Fold this protein.
Amino acid sequence: MLSIRREDLEAREHQILSPEAAFSDQSKGRAIAEEPDQYRTCYQCDRDRILHSKSFRRLAHKTQVFLAPEGDHYRTRLIHTLEVSQIARSIARPLGLNEDLTEAIALGHDLGHTPFGHIGEKALSHAISLYRGMDPEASENERIFAHNQQSARIVEYLEKDGQGLNLSHEVIDGIRCHSGNLRAETAEGRIVAISDRIAYVTHDIDDAKRAGLLSEEYLPTEAREVLGNSSPERIENMVHDIVSESSRVGDIKMTDSMWGAMMTMRAFLFANLYASGDAKYEEPKAYDLIIELFDYFVNHLDEVPAEYKCHDFDHPEIQVADYVSGMTDRYATRVFEDLRLPCSWGKRRYVK
């Protein structure tokens, strides 16, 4: 039986990929040098390390939009991550870019998300600001805790009991630069950034429709005319648009009309789903819960697991933020209940 070695895969990349691709044998490498794997490229190893990490498994129990949804078909942060990966690979493949790098970045991009979604991110930013004596309402302090930076921090420092995953430079860069105004160094990283937006704009509509909070007819007409009238149609149209436009301009781009329609739909979701409405009813409680957990553990550092205290010895607020942000929705709730609510004698407290 044929045995295909890493060198064969690297040579094949140069035969079939675009000159704009990030080639595995031209990676800027890892922070700590390692012997290359016999059969996997560096990006394939990175993908596997992320997939087998504790942080990745915890995404199964972290909020996407709906807090701890009871229905089996609502997206969690893990399902969102897998959908981003599928969309990103569907763009990378016809553009002749590195699918392995694209997949690794996509699988790792949301590892740093807090319990309860973006509201947890806001709560930790608020808590850290107060701890440092800063104004939590000041615009420059609103993203002291940012999930994209935390995702990079997890793979660099926190995973494997504080050792980190020692991923390739290009994967870490793509993870860090998938949101906000940051621009990834590689085309593969830029694909993940735009695929993230495609995924949540389409599947959050799908979940909101399932919950009875939105209907197709309620969505902006002008955006639907460009994007399509269903989630599968919208994803297909945006993917095809990106592949065509990126081929034309030599960078990862949508046409102006498609980008404008996606941003119109995104703005609609922020106004009607993300920032208000029934889906957000429980968020104030989640916000207060995160603040309470932060305040408790910053005053009881001895109860923070050792793996979160391997770094930033002079910044207990960072150690506590690392711990609290890594919690799942249900674990954060259980810890809060154990700390704040009375329980029967002999009942075991939360497991660290």
User: Anything to note?
Assistant: The two ends are 47 Å apart (CA to CA).
